Amino acid sequence: MSQRVKIKALLQSQQTEIDVTVKGWVRTFRNNQFIALNDGSTNNNIQVVVDFENTDAALLKRITTGAAISVTGKLVASLGKGQTVEIKATEIEILGDSDPEKYPLQPKKHSLEFLREIAHLRFRTNTFGAIFRVRNSLAFAVHQFFQERGFVYLHTPVITASDAEGAGETFHVTNFDLDNIPKTDTGEIDFKQDFFGRPTNLTVSGQLEGELGAMALSDVYTFGPTFRAENSNTTRHLAEFWMIEPEVAFNDLADNMDLAEDMLKYVIRYALDKNADDIEFLTQRLQEEEKQKPQNERSEMTLLEKLQFCLNNDFERLTYTEAIDILKESTPNKKKKFQYPVEGWGTDLQSEHERYLVEKHFKKPVILTDYPKEIKAFYMRQNDDGKTVGAMDILFPGIGEIIGGSQREERLDKLEQRMDEMGIPKDELWWYLDTRRFGGCPHSGFGLGFERLVLFVTGMGNIRDVIPFPRFPKNAEF
Ligand code: 4AD
Ligand code: MG
Protein backbone atom coordinates (compact mmCIF):
# COMPACT_ATOMS: atom_id res chain seq x y z
CA MET A 1 0.00 0.00 0.00
CA SER A 2 1.47 3.35 -0.93
CA GLN A 3 1.49 6.13 1.64
CA ARG A 4 -1.42 8.55 1.73
CA VAL A 5 -0.36 11.98 0.51
CA LYS A 6 -2.19 15.17 1.49
CA ILE A 7 -3.86 16.98 -1.39
CA LYS A 8 -2.22 20.28 -0.48
CA ALA A 9 1.22 18.70 -0.89
CA LEU A 10 0.24 17.10 -4.20
CA LEU A 11 -1.02 20.35 -5.65
CA GLN A 12 2.33 21.94 -4.85
CA SER A 13 4.32 18.99 -6.16
CA GLN A 14 7.05 19.77 -8.62
CA GLN A 15 7.17 16.13 -9.63
CA THR A 16 4.74 14.39 -11.96
CA GLU A 17 4.52 10.88 -13.39
CA ILE A 18 4.70 9.44 -9.89
CA ASP A 19 2.35 6.96 -8.25
CA VAL A 20 0.30 8.42 -5.43
CA THR A 21 -2.52 7.51 -3.09
CA VAL A 22 -4.94 10.11 -1.78
CA LYS A 23 -7.95 9.72 0.48
CA GLY A 24 -10.73 12.19 0.96
CA TRP A 25 -14.34 13.11 0.36
CA VAL A 26 -15.94 13.55 -3.03
CA ARG A 27 -17.08 17.10 -3.67
CA THR A 28 -18.45 16.45 -7.16
CA PHE A 29 -18.32 13.76 -9.82
CA ARG A 30 -18.82 15.04 -13.38
CA ASN A 31 -19.60 13.07 -16.50
CA ASN A 32 -18.69 9.78 -14.82
CA GLN A 33 -15.13 10.91 -15.33
CA PHE A 34 -13.92 13.80 -13.15
CA ILE A 35 -13.90 13.59 -9.37
CA ALA A 36 -13.20 16.73 -7.35
CA LEU A 37 -11.66 15.30 -4.19
CA ASN A 38 -10.94 17.15 -0.95
CA ASP A 39 -9.22 16.00 2.24
CA GLY A 40 -9.38 19.22 4.27
CA SER A 41 -5.69 20.07 3.85
CA THR A 42 -6.62 22.91 1.49
CA ASN A 43 -9.66 24.42 -0.17
CA ASN A 44 -8.41 23.34 -3.54
CA ASN A 45 -9.65 19.98 -4.71
CA ILE A 46 -7.54 17.57 -6.66
CA GLN A 47 -9.07 16.38 -9.90
CA VAL A 48 -9.17 12.62 -10.26
CA VAL A 49 -9.68 11.35 -13.79
CA VAL A 50 -11.55 8.06 -13.86
CA ASP A 51 -11.07 5.53 -16.63
CA PHE A 52 -14.81 4.97 -16.71
CA GLU A 53 -14.76 2.52 -19.61
CA ASN A 54 -12.67 0.12 -17.59
CA THR A 55 -14.33 0.76 -14.24
CA ASP A 56 -17.13 -1.35 -12.84
CA ALA A 57 -20.47 0.47 -13.30
CA ALA A 58 -21.52 -0.45 -9.77
CA LEU A 59 -18.45 1.28 -8.39
CA LEU A 60 -19.00 4.39 -10.52
CA LYS A 61 -22.48 4.69 -9.03
CA ARG A 62 -21.04 4.81 -5.54
CA ILE A 63 -18.81 7.80 -6.30
CA THR A 64 -21.22 10.39 -4.99
CA THR A 65 -20.93 13.78 -3.30
CA GLY A 66 -19.89 13.20 0.31
CA ALA A 67 -18.56 9.66 -0.14
CA ALA A 68 -15.16 8.85 1.35
CA ILE A 69 -12.82 7.25 -1.15
CA SER A 70 -9.25 6.15 -1.62
CA VAL A 71 -7.62 6.78 -4.99
CA THR A 72 -4.37 5.38 -6.27
CA GLY A 73 -2.99 6.51 -9.59
CA LYS A 74 -0.45 8.55 -11.44
CA LEU A 75 0.06 12.24 -10.77
CA VAL A 76 0.20 13.92 -14.17
CA ALA A 77 0.32 17.44 -15.51
CA SER A 78 -3.22 18.60 -16.16
CA LEU A 79 -4.35 20.00 -19.46
CA GLY A 80 -7.59 21.24 -17.94
CA LYS A 81 -8.19 24.76 -16.74
CA GLY A 82 -7.81 25.66 -13.06
CA GLN A 83 -5.26 23.04 -12.01
CA THR A 84 -1.69 22.17 -12.82
CA VAL A 85 -1.83 18.51 -11.80
CA GLU A 86 -4.42 15.78 -11.64
CA ILE A 87 -4.50 12.08 -10.85
CA LYS A 88 -5.14 9.41 -13.44
CA ALA A 89 -6.80 6.82 -11.27
CA THR A 90 -5.79 3.18 -11.52
CA GLU A 91 -7.63 2.06 -8.40
CA ILE A 92 -10.58 3.53 -6.55
CA GLU A 93 -11.91 2.16 -3.31
CA ILE A 94 -15.09 3.33 -1.63
CA LEU A 95 -14.36 3.77 2.08
CA GLY A 96 -17.76 5.14 3.03
CA ASP A 97 -20.87 5.59 0.90
CA SER A 98 -22.96 8.73 0.98
CA ASP A 99 -26.53 8.55 -0.25
CA PRO A 100 -26.85 11.56 -2.58
CA GLU A 101 -30.60 11.75 -1.98
CA LYS A 102 -30.09 12.19 1.75
CA TYR A 103 -26.75 14.01 2.00
CA PRO A 104 -27.57 17.50 3.30
CA LEU A 105 -24.60 19.21 1.65
CA GLN A 106 -25.32 19.71 -2.00
CA PRO A 107 -22.61 20.97 -4.34
CA LYS A 108 -23.97 24.53 -4.21
CA LYS A 109 -23.69 27.55 -1.94
CA HIS A 110 -25.53 27.05 1.35
CA SER A 111 -26.38 29.85 3.78
CA LEU A 112 -24.38 30.12 6.99
CA GLU A 113 -27.64 29.81 8.94
CA PHE A 114 -28.39 26.49 7.26
CA LEU A 115 -24.86 25.26 7.83
CA ARG A 116 -25.13 26.11 11.53
CA GLU A 117 -27.97 23.60 11.71
CA ILE A 118 -25.70 20.93 10.30
CA ALA A 119 -22.60 21.89 12.25
CA HIS A 120 -21.54 18.24 12.24
CA LEU A 121 -21.08 18.42 8.46
CA ARG A 122 -20.14 22.03 7.83
CA PHE A 123 -16.43 21.25 8.16
CA ARG A 124 -16.75 19.88 4.64
CA THR A 125 -17.42 23.26 3.04
CA ASN A 126 -14.68 25.53 1.75
CA THR A 127 -15.64 28.35 4.09
CA PHE A 128 -15.49 26.26 7.25
CA GLY A 129 -12.40 24.39 6.10
CA ALA A 130 -10.65 27.75 5.78
CA ILE A 131 -11.99 29.07 9.10
CA PHE A 132 -10.89 26.07 11.12
CA ARG A 133 -7.45 25.90 9.53
CA VAL A 134 -6.98 29.60 10.38
CA ARG A 135 -8.27 28.96 13.91
CA ASN A 136 -5.77 26.15 14.29
CA SER A 137 -2.88 28.36 13.17
CA LEU A 138 -3.89 31.15 15.52
CA ALA A 139 -3.99 28.74 18.47
CA PHE A 140 -0.56 27.40 17.57
CA ALA A 141 0.80 30.93 17.15
CA VAL A 142 -0.46 31.93 20.59
CA HIS A 143 1.55 29.13 22.16
CA GLN A 144 4.58 29.89 20.01
CA PHE A 145 4.48 33.58 20.96
CA PHE A 146 4.45 32.89 24.68
CA GLN A 147 6.83 29.95 24.54
CA GLU A 148 9.40 32.02 22.64
CA ARG A 149 9.23 34.53 25.47
CA GLY A 150 9.70 31.98 28.23
CA PHE A 151 6.14 31.98 29.56
CA VAL A 152 4.85 28.90 31.38
CA TYR A 153 1.56 27.46 30.09
CA LEU A 154 -0.54 27.02 33.20
CA HIS A 155 -3.61 24.77 33.23
CA THR A 156 -6.20 26.40 35.43
CA PRO A 157 -9.27 24.49 36.60
CA VAL A 158 -12.49 24.31 34.64
CA ILE A 159 -14.47 23.61 37.82
CA THR A 160 -14.04 26.27 40.47
CA ALA A 161 -15.77 27.64 43.53
CA SER A 162 -15.19 31.28 42.61
CA ASP A 163 -16.57 33.80 40.17
CA ALA A 164 -13.46 35.65 39.02
CA GLU A 165 -15.35 38.46 37.37
CA GLY A 166 -17.89 38.73 40.17
CA ALA A 167 -20.63 39.16 37.62
CA GLY A 168 -22.77 36.22 38.73
CA GLU A 169 -22.88 34.69 35.28
CA THR A 170 -21.77 31.21 36.21
CA PHE A 171 -23.05 27.76 35.30
CA HIS A 172 -23.48 25.56 38.34
CA VAL A 173 -21.80 22.18 38.54
CA THR A 174 -23.39 19.44 40.59
CA ASN A 175 -23.72 15.68 40.74
CA PHE A 176 -27.02 15.89 42.61
CA ASP A 177 -29.89 13.85 41.26
CA LEU A 178 -32.01 16.78 40.10
CA ASP A 179 -35.23 14.97 41.02
CA ASN A 180 -34.03 14.49 44.54
CA ILE A 181 -31.89 17.39 45.73
CA PRO A 182 -30.88 17.05 49.40
CA LYS A 183 -32.16 19.86 51.61
CA THR A 184 -31.08 21.06 55.03
CA ASP A 185 -33.50 21.26 57.97
CA THR A 186 -34.20 24.85 57.01
CA GLY A 187 -35.11 23.84 53.45
CA GLU A 188 -31.99 25.06 51.70
CA ILE A 189 -29.98 23.04 49.21
CA ASP A 190 -27.51 20.99 51.22
CA PHE A 191 -24.31 21.51 49.27
CA LYS A 192 -22.38 19.58 51.90
CA GLN A 193 -23.78 16.48 50.26
CA ASP A 194 -22.78 17.57 46.77
CA PHE A 195 -19.72 16.05 45.08
CA PHE A 196 -17.31 18.77 46.19
CA GLY A 197 -19.10 19.50 49.45
CA ARG A 198 -19.79 23.07 48.38
CA PRO A 199 -21.36 24.98 45.47
CA THR A 200 -19.13 24.95 42.39
CA ASN A 201 -19.35 26.36 38.90
CA LEU A 202 -17.64 26.33 35.52
CA THR A 203 -14.87 28.90 35.36
CA VAL A 204 -15.55 32.32 33.83
CA SER A 205 -11.83 33.11 33.72
CA GLY A 206 -8.56 31.51 34.79
CA GLN A 207 -7.17 34.84 35.92
CA LEU A 208 -7.23 34.42 39.69
CA GLU A 209 -5.39 31.10 39.47
CA GLY A 210 -3.10 32.60 36.83
CA GLU A 211 -2.12 35.31 39.29
CA LEU A 212 -1.12 32.65 41.81
CA GLY A 213 1.15 31.08 39.20
CA ALA A 214 2.68 34.43 38.23
CA MET A 215 3.61 35.08 41.87
CA ALA A 216 6.17 32.29 41.54
CA LEU A 217 6.79 31.56 37.87
CA SER A 218 6.75 35.27 36.89
CA ASP A 219 5.37 34.87 33.36
CA VAL A 220 2.45 32.51 32.81
CA TYR A 221 -0.48 32.14 30.47
CA THR A 222 -3.60 30.06 30.32
CA PHE A 223 -5.45 29.01 27.18
CA GLY A 224 -8.63 27.15 27.92
CA PRO A 225 -12.41 27.12 27.71
CA THR A 226 -14.38 29.56 29.82
CA PHE A 227 -18.11 29.68 30.40
CA ARG A 228 -20.61 32.46 30.90
CA ALA A 229 -24.32 32.24 31.43
CA GLU A 230 -24.86 35.75 30.12
CA ASN A 231 -27.04 36.88 27.28
CA SER A 232 -25.09 35.31 24.48
CA ASN A 233 -27.75 35.86 21.83
CA THR A 234 -25.47 38.21 19.93
CA THR A 235 -22.97 37.84 17.11
CA ARG A 236 -20.12 38.50 19.59
CA HIS A 237 -21.00 36.27 22.58
CA LEU A 238 -20.85 32.58 23.28
CA ALA A 239 -21.74 30.70 26.44
CA GLU A 240 -18.55 28.66 26.00
CA PHE A 241 -15.52 30.41 24.56
CA TRP A 242 -11.76 30.02 24.72
CA MET A 243 -9.69 32.60 26.48
CA ILE A 244 -5.96 33.30 26.51
CA GLU A 245 -4.88 34.91 29.76
CA PRO A 246 -1.27 35.92 30.32
CA GLU A 247 -0.33 37.11 33.79
CA VAL A 248 3.04 38.72 34.37
CA ALA A 249 4.73 39.61 37.65
CA PHE A 250 6.41 43.04 37.75
CA ASN A 251 4.54 44.31 34.65
CA ASP A 252 2.68 47.59 34.88
CA LEU A 253 -0.17 48.73 32.66
CA ALA A 254 2.10 50.08 29.92
CA ASP A 255 4.01 46.75 29.79
CA ASN A 256 0.66 44.99 29.65
CA MET A 257 -0.45 47.04 26.66
CA ASP A 258 2.84 46.38 24.87
CA LEU A 259 2.53 42.65 25.47
CA ALA A 260 -1.04 42.57 24.18
CA GLU A 261 -0.27 44.58 21.06
CA ASP A 262 2.81 42.47 20.30
CA MET A 263 0.87 39.27 20.76
CA LEU A 264 -2.02 40.29 18.55
CA LYS A 265 0.31 41.39 15.78
CA TYR A 266 2.42 38.25 16.09
CA VAL A 267 -0.48 35.81 15.80
CA ILE A 268 -2.16 37.71 12.97
CA ARG A 269 1.12 37.82 11.04
CA TYR A 270 1.59 34.10 11.64
CA ALA A 271 -1.85 33.28 10.21
CA LEU A 272 -1.26 35.57 7.23
CA ASP A 273 1.94 33.70 6.41
CA LYS A 274 0.78 30.21 7.19
CA ASN A 275 -2.73 30.43 5.78
CA ALA A 276 -2.25 32.83 2.90
CA ASP A 277 -4.52 30.83 0.59
CA ASP A 278 -7.28 30.45 3.18
CA ILE A 279 -7.23 34.17 3.98
CA GLU A 280 -7.26 34.94 0.27
CA PHE A 281 -10.32 32.67 -0.07
CA LEU A 282 -12.04 34.35 2.88
CA THR A 283 -11.19 37.78 1.46
CA GLN A 284 -12.88 36.85 -1.83
CA ARG A 285 -15.84 35.44 0.02
CA LEU A 286 -16.27 38.69 1.93
CA GLN A 287 -15.95 40.73 -1.25
CA GLU A 288 -18.88 38.79 -2.69
CA GLU A 289 -20.88 39.44 0.46
CA GLU A 290 -20.02 43.15 0.37
CA LYS A 291 -21.36 43.40 -3.15
CA GLN A 292 -24.82 42.56 -1.81
CA LYS A 293 -24.75 45.63 0.44
CA PRO A 294 -25.65 49.19 -0.59
CA GLN A 295 -22.59 51.17 -1.69
CA ASN A 296 -22.43 53.38 1.41
CA GLU A 297 -22.43 50.41 3.78
CA ARG A 298 -19.58 48.60 2.09
CA SER A 299 -16.30 48.22 3.89
CA GLU A 300 -13.55 50.52 2.66
CA MET A 301 -10.93 47.82 2.99
CA THR A 302 -10.78 44.18 2.01
CA LEU A 303 -10.11 41.62 4.71
CA LEU A 304 -6.50 41.29 3.67
CA GLU A 305 -6.01 45.05 3.72
CA LYS A 306 -7.63 45.25 7.14
CA LEU A 307 -5.26 42.66 8.56
CA GLN A 308 -2.22 44.30 7.04
CA PHE A 309 -3.34 47.71 8.24
CA CYS A 310 -3.60 46.36 11.75
CA LEU A 311 -0.05 45.00 11.57
CA ASN A 312 1.46 48.17 10.16
CA ASN A 313 0.00 50.69 12.59
CA ASP A 314 0.43 51.39 16.26
CA PHE A 315 -2.77 50.90 18.21
CA GLU A 316 -4.21 54.19 19.46
CA ARG A 317 -3.89 54.50 23.25
CA LEU A 318 -6.13 56.83 25.23
CA THR A 319 -7.98 56.97 28.51
CA TYR A 320 -11.65 56.26 29.04
CA THR A 321 -12.07 59.90 30.05
CA GLU A 322 -10.62 61.11 26.74
CA ALA A 323 -12.83 58.66 24.87
CA ILE A 324 -15.95 59.97 26.61
CA ASP A 325 -15.02 63.52 25.58
CA ILE A 326 -14.69 62.41 21.96
CA LEU A 327 -17.98 60.54 22.07
CA LYS A 328 -19.91 63.39 23.66
CA GLU A 329 -18.94 65.64 20.79
CA SER A 330 -19.68 63.07 18.11
CA THR A 331 -22.73 62.38 16.07
CA PRO A 332 -22.18 59.11 14.27
CA ASN A 333 -23.91 60.30 11.15
CA LYS A 334 -26.31 63.02 10.05
CA LYS A 335 -29.53 61.07 10.41
CA LYS A 336 -28.82 58.89 13.38
CA LYS A 337 -27.51 59.69 16.82
CA PHE A 338 -26.20 56.95 19.05
CA GLN A 339 -28.96 54.58 20.05
CA TYR A 340 -27.62 54.87 23.59
CA PRO A 341 -26.67 58.52 24.10
CA VAL A 342 -23.36 59.01 25.91
CA GLU A 343 -24.67 60.12 29.27
CA GLY A 344 -21.34 61.29 30.54
CA TRP A 345 -18.46 60.15 32.64
CA GLY A 346 -19.02 56.96 34.60
CA THR A 347 -21.23 54.94 32.29
CA ASP A 348 -20.05 51.84 30.51
CA LEU A 349 -19.47 52.11 26.78
CA GLN A 350 -21.94 50.35 24.52
CA SER A 351 -20.59 48.39 21.61
CA GLU A 352 -21.82 51.12 19.21
CA HIS A 353 -19.60 53.61 21.05
CA GLU A 354 -16.60 51.30 20.90
CA ARG A 355 -17.14 50.68 17.23
CA TYR A 356 -17.52 54.38 16.55
CA LEU A 357 -14.15 55.11 18.13
CA VAL A 358 -12.41 52.33 16.23
CA GLU A 359 -14.15 52.40 12.88
CA LYS A 360 -15.09 56.04 12.42
CA HIS A 361 -12.91 58.19 14.65
CA PHE A 362 -9.46 56.57 14.82
CA LYS A 363 -9.97 53.99 12.07
CA LYS A 364 -7.58 51.61 13.78
CA PRO A 365 -7.35 49.38 16.85
CA VAL A 366 -7.71 51.33 20.08
CA ILE A 367 -6.57 50.66 23.65
CA LEU A 368 -8.74 52.38 26.24
CA THR A 369 -7.33 52.67 29.74
CA ASP A 370 -8.23 53.91 33.20
CA TYR A 371 -11.93 53.18 33.40
CA PRO A 372 -14.14 54.26 36.31
CA LYS A 373 -13.72 51.73 39.08
CA GLU A 374 -17.49 51.28 39.40
CA ILE A 375 -17.75 49.53 36.04
CA LYS A 376 -14.75 47.26 36.44
CA ALA A 377 -13.85 44.15 38.44
CA PHE A 378 -12.66 44.21 42.06
CA TYR A 379 -9.10 43.10 41.33
CA MET A 380 -8.06 46.09 39.20
CA ARG A 381 -5.45 48.46 40.63
CA GLN A 382 -6.88 51.72 41.91
CA ASN A 383 -5.38 54.88 40.51
CA ASP A 384 -4.37 57.80 42.69
CA ASP A 385 -7.38 59.87 41.55
CA GLY A 386 -9.60 57.58 43.65
CA LYS A 387 -12.02 57.29 40.74
CA THR A 388 -10.38 55.13 38.11
CA VAL A 389 -8.56 51.81 37.89
CA GLY A 390 -5.65 50.62 35.77
CA ALA A 391 -7.85 48.80 33.28
CA MET A 392 -7.27 48.35 29.58
CA ASP A 393 -9.69 47.21 26.90
CA ILE A 394 -8.53 46.66 23.35
CA LEU A 395 -11.12 47.47 20.71
CA PHE A 396 -10.91 46.14 17.16
CA PRO A 397 -12.69 47.21 14.00
CA GLY A 398 -15.74 45.11 13.27
CA ILE A 399 -15.40 43.37 16.63
CA GLY A 400 -15.44 45.85 19.50
CA GLU A 401 -13.75 44.56 22.65
CA ILE A 402 -11.27 41.82 21.86
CA ILE A 403 -9.14 42.04 25.03
CA GLY A 404 -9.94 43.03 28.60
CA GLY A 405 -7.17 43.37 31.12
CA SER A 406 -5.58 45.43 33.88
CA GLN A 407 -2.81 46.01 36.30
CA ARG A 408 -3.85 44.11 39.44
CA GLU A 409 -4.32 45.58 42.90
CA GLU A 410 -1.32 44.23 44.78
CA ARG A 411 -1.90 46.32 47.96
CA LEU A 412 -3.77 44.14 50.44
CA ASP A 413 -5.54 46.97 52.25
CA LYS A 414 -6.80 48.56 49.04
CA LEU A 415 -7.90 45.20 47.66
CA GLU A 416 -9.79 44.24 50.82
CA GLN A 417 -11.45 47.61 50.95
CA ARG A 418 -12.62 47.27 47.34
CA MET A 419 -13.89 43.73 47.93
CA ASP A 420 -15.89 44.96 50.90
CA GLU A 421 -17.35 47.79 48.86
CA MET A 422 -18.34 45.42 46.09
CA GLY A 423 -19.60 42.62 48.33
CA ILE A 424 -17.00 40.09 47.18
CA PRO A 425 -16.60 37.40 49.88
CA LYS A 426 -13.09 37.74 51.29
CA ASP A 427 -13.26 34.50 53.23
CA GLU A 428 -13.88 32.48 50.09
CA LEU A 429 -10.94 34.11 48.32
CA TRP A 430 -8.48 33.74 51.25
CA TRP A 431 -6.02 31.95 48.98
CA TYR A 432 -6.08 34.85 46.50
CA LEU A 433 -5.50 37.36 49.28
CA ASP A 434 -2.60 35.26 50.57
CA THR A 435 -0.54 36.22 47.52
CA ARG A 436 -0.81 39.83 48.68
CA ARG A 437 0.23 38.81 52.18
CA PHE A 438 3.34 36.91 51.17
CA GLY A 439 5.57 38.58 48.62
CA GLY A 440 2.89 40.30 46.62
CA CYS A 441 4.20 42.56 43.88
CA PRO A 442 2.94 44.71 41.04
CA HIS A 443 1.63 42.53 38.22
CA SER A 444 -0.63 42.71 35.20
CA GLY A 445 -2.49 40.53 32.77
CA PHE A 446 -5.28 40.37 30.27
CA GLY A 447 -7.77 38.06 28.59
CA LEU A 448 -8.05 37.66 24.85
CA GLY A 449 -11.33 36.20 23.63
CA PHE A 450 -10.01 33.65 21.17
CA GLU A 451 -13.15 33.48 19.05
CA ARG A 452 -13.21 37.25 18.67
CA LEU A 453 -9.67 37.02 17.34
CA VAL A 454 -10.72 34.30 14.90
CA LEU A 455 -13.68 36.48 13.86
CA PHE A 456 -11.34 39.34 13.07
CA VAL A 457 -8.85 37.28 11.10
CA THR A 458 -11.45 35.36 9.09
CA GLY A 459 -13.71 38.36 8.50
CA MET A 460 -16.76 36.31 9.51
CA GLY A 461 -19.76 38.17 10.89
CA ASN A 462 -21.01 35.79 13.55
CA ILE A 463 -19.03 34.24 16.40
CA ARG A 464 -21.08 31.06 16.06
CA ASP A 465 -19.26 30.39 12.81
CA VAL A 466 -15.72 30.43 14.16
CA ILE A 467 -15.98 27.74 16.84
CA PRO A 468 -16.69 24.18 15.75
CA PHE A 469 -19.63 23.62 18.08
CA PRO A 470 -21.05 26.90 19.39
CA ARG A 471 -22.85 27.04 22.72
CA PHE A 472 -25.53 29.69 23.04
CA PRO A 473 -29.00 29.90 24.59
CA LYS A 474 -31.16 26.93 23.63
CA ASN A 475 -28.35 25.37 21.63
CA ALA A 476 -26.20 22.46 22.65
CA GLU A 477 -27.20 19.96 19.97
CA PHE A 478 -23.85 18.84 18.65
O1 4AD B 1 -13.25 41.35 29.68
P1 4AD B 1 -13.34 39.97 30.25
O2 4AD B 1 -14.59 39.61 30.97
O3 4AD B 1 -12.06 39.81 31.17
C1 4AD B 1 -11.76 38.77 31.99
O4 4AD B 1 -12.36 37.73 32.06
C2 4AD B 1 -10.47 38.95 32.70
N1 4AD B 1 -10.45 38.03 33.84
C3 4AD B 1 -9.34 38.71 31.76
C4 4AD B 1 -7.99 38.90 32.40
O5 4AD B 1 -7.64 40.01 32.73
N2 4AD B 1 -7.25 37.83 32.59
O6 4AD B 1 -13.13 38.91 29.09
C5 4AD B 1 -11.94 38.92 28.32
C6 4AD B 1 -12.27 38.78 26.87
C7 4AD B 1 -13.14 39.89 26.29
O7 4AD B 1 -12.38 41.02 25.94
C8 4AD B 1 -13.74 39.20 25.08
O8 4AD B 1 -12.83 39.20 23.99
C9 4AD B 1 -13.89 37.79 25.55
O9 4AD B 1 -13.02 37.60 26.63
N3 4AD B 1 -15.26 37.47 25.97
C10 4AD B 1 -16.11 36.71 25.25
N4 4AD B 1 -15.98 36.11 24.06
C11 4AD B 1 -17.03 35.41 23.61
N5 4AD B 1 -18.19 35.26 24.27
C12 4AD B 1 -18.37 35.86 25.48
N6 4AD B 1 -19.52 35.68 26.14
C13 4AD B 1 -17.30 36.62 26.02
N7 4AD B 1 -17.13 37.33 27.16
C14 4AD B 1 -15.88 37.83 27.11
MG1 MG C 1 -14.36 43.04 29.41
Automatic annotation (TrEMBL):
Its main location: cytoplasm. PROSITE patterns: AA_TRNA_LIGASE_II (PS50862). CDD domains: AsxRS_core, EcAsnRS_like_N. Keywords: Aminoacyl-tRNA synthetase, ATP-binding, Coiled coil, Cytoplasm, Ligase, Nucleotide-binding, Protein biosynthesis. InterPro entries: Aa-tRNA-synt_II (IPR004364), aa-tRNA-synth_II (IPR006195), aa-tRNA-synth_II/BPL/LPL (IPR045864), Asn-tRNA-ligase (IPR004522), Asp/Asn-tRNA-synth_IIb (IPR002312), NA-bd_OB-fold (IPR012340), NA-bd_OB_tRNA (IPR004365). It is found in: Cytoplasm. Residues 132-468 form the Aminoacyl-transfer RNA synthetases class-II family profile domain. Transmembrane segments: none annotated. Pfam families: tRNA-synt_2, tRNA_anti-codon. Its EC number is 6.1.1.22. One of its GO terms (molecular function) is asparagine-tRNA ligase activity. PANTHER family: ASPARAGINE--TRNA LIGASE, MITOCHONDRIAL-RELATED, ASPARTYL/LYSYL-TRNA SYNTHETASE. Belongs to the class-II aminoacyl-tRNA synthetase family. NCBIfam families: asnS, PRK03932.1. Homodimer. This is Asparagine--tRNA ligase. It comes from Mucilaginibacter pocheonensis.
